[in-house]
Specification:
single chain
Length: 545
């Protein structure tokens, strides 16, 4: 019997023991299908909801949520949704995105299936060009859930659960697989190696040098494998493992029966952090090292932050919203990720929560406007990758301001004020920063340096000057708005301009691109009414000019 809810794994009781050896199978590819229809892969990418993302912020007095916070001020974190990758469908069933690993130019996504059926898959997504992600490889498993995925040096490593009674090779229900892949493509001709361990459903895998570490749920083990041949190096039994984190020589495992254990490289426990939380019935939960702390997904309780040296609780980060119409069992923190002072919480049906790390006092920012139940989150560089169950993979750009831009625009003050930016005739304004606007209307002279999003349209009125240095994203693909440049007005761009709508150049308008590296990505049309000028060098992503 198997029951999986999103990233939930319910295990059957087995006798806990340490294996003397691992059984490795190579080459058999029964129960595995490679998607060879390029149209299916191409159609998996959707830009329907791409564009500016609102963040719903909570008013501390009323408790209500607003798109731009209280007093309608311009908000921090000008996030944009780049694209979505739809979950694969096989044999009439839509698979559920369970885990993401981003390495280099590629994102590796694992999938499993809710209910009694074992079925999963793996996607490879080329994200080297953030404006145009491409699914380059897809595998289906017809008798296995894939619960976690890692890529390293030419191989995709997967862990999950398999119905061992129906498998010709499985000696246990928890497995690890090693699949050759390069350039975004699976190489099944090189064979696939498998190994099995105690526990009903393997749920997490980490790589450290030449070792693989795998956790395998209730009455399972933390098992260390040799990366080259999947032979067992070491293992330790635990009651109810849900996930792990690795930092330098430290290993942290989350055991739902007691809390977090810190282990050394010999798998000896050096410290236990007792946690009294309901982690759910064998639900996968992630944890992440961050500076001197470790952040733990604690289900309905939110995320717990602990000092891993002392074991002391630093704080709880609660789930910010309790949405109507969502089952309480789906309002849980499934995963956490950190990125340069930002804490992201995948809260299931309560969405993706963004907070700012304030040392011992995390400041809740709000809920990012995303569809689906958020099961897992990964963040690297300027991007956030969210696994949202049957809604698949969502790719978010954080639009962090460039430090070089900050230096160039150091003389300009940081923007604070209304989310509706209006520049009057005769005004000469310049700002630096990183904000979310509702609208922008310019009748004077305006310079914006940094990263900015505008939910509604942008108007550069007669004889006005608008200069932007950095990143500007306007509207969403399912709610298009225009950028309009009127007679005698000039719009000067140095950086990246994305418009989910039309760029309208009226008679006498001028559009200038500075430097050699500017990029313009227009999802609507370029409308040129009368005599207009477009000058400079730029990359036209959609070939609209």
């Amino acid at each position: 019997m198997k029951k999986v809810y999103q990233v939930t794994f319910v295990t059957v009781l087995m006798l806990a023991s340490c294996s003397d050896e691992t059984t490795v199978y190579s080459d058999p590819q029964d129960d595995i299908l490679l998607e060879d229809n390029q149209a299916v892969l191409d159609n998996s990418i959707s830009f329907d909801n791409a564009g500016v993302l609102d963040i719903f912020e909570q008013d501390e007095v009323t408790g209500k949520f607003y798109r731009n916070g209280k007093n309608d001020e311009a908000g921090d974190y000008p996030l944009t949704l780049v694209a979505q990758v739809s979950s694969p469908t096989y044999s009439g069933s839509t698979l559920t995105a369970s885990h993401i690993d981003v390495e280099g130019d590629y994102a590796y996504v694992s999938y499993n299936t809710a209910g009694e059926v074992y079925m999963g898959g793996i996607d490879i997504v080329n994200v080297s060009d953030p404006t145009d992600p491409v699914v380059t490889g897809r595998l289906y498993y017809t008798n296995a859930d894939v619960n976690s995925v890692k890529y390293d040096n030419g191989y995709v490593y997967i862990v999950g659960g398999v119905d061992s009674e129906k498998s010709v090779r499985a000696t246990s229900n928890s497995f690890i697989g090693k699949i050759a892949a390069s350039g975004g493509r699976f190489n099944l001709g090189a064979g696939i190696s498998y190994a099995f361990q105690q526990g009903f459903n393997a749920n997490d895998v980490k790589i450290a040098s030449n070792k693989l570490m795998v956790t395998s749920g209730r009455d399972g083990t933390l098992t260390v494998y040799d990366k080259s041949d999947l032979s067992i190096i070491d293992e330790a039994p635990f009651s109810d493992l849900r996930g792990m984190a690795v930092q330098n020589d430290l290993i942290a495992v989350l055991d739902a029966s007691k809390g977090v254990s810190i282990l050394d490289q010999s798998l000896q426990v050096t410290k236990d952090i007792a946690i009294d939380s309901d982690f759910g019935a064998s639900s996968k939960r992630t944890l992440d090292f961050y500076e001197d702390n470790i952040v733990v997904s604690e289900g309905a309780k939110g995320a717990g932050v602990y000092n891993y040296g002392s074991g002391n609780l630093v704080e709880y980060i609660p789930i910010l919203i309790n949405p109507d119409g969502v089952d309480s069992s789906d309002i849980v923190t499934n995963a956490v990720a950190t990125n340069e002072g930002v804490v992201l919480m995948a809260n299931g049906g309560a969405g993706l929560c963004l907070s700012e790390d304030g040392g011992n006092n995390t400041d809740l920012v709000g809920i990012i406007e995303l569809d689906g139940s958020i099961n897992f989150v990964e963040s690297k560089g300027d991007y956030v990758f969210a696994a949202s169950g049957r809604s698949g993979l969502q790719i978010i750009k954080m639009n962090k301001p460039s430090t070089s831009l900050a230096a160039e625009c150091a003389a300009s003050p940081a923007y604070s004020g209304s989310s509706r930016l209006n520049v009057n005739v005769g005004e000469d304004l310049a700002y630096r920063g990183s904000k979310r606007f509702r609208s922008l209307d310019n009748s004077g002279s305006l310079l914006l340096c940094g990263s900015w999003t505008v939910r509604d349209g942008v108007n550069v009125n007669d004889d006005a000057l608008f200069e932007m240095n950095g990143t500007l994203v306007v509207a969403r693909n399912n709610r298009r708005r225009d950028v309009t440049i009127d007679s005698g007005a000039t719009f000067r761009v140095e950086g990246n301009l994305t418009i989910y709508g039309d760029l309208v150049l009226n008679d006498g308008a001028t559009l200038e691109f500075l430097g050699n590296n500017s990029v313009v990505n227009i999802f609507g049309s370029v409308v040129r009414n009368g005599s207009t000028e477009v000058n400079g060098t730029f990359r036209d992503v959609q070939n609209k000019f």
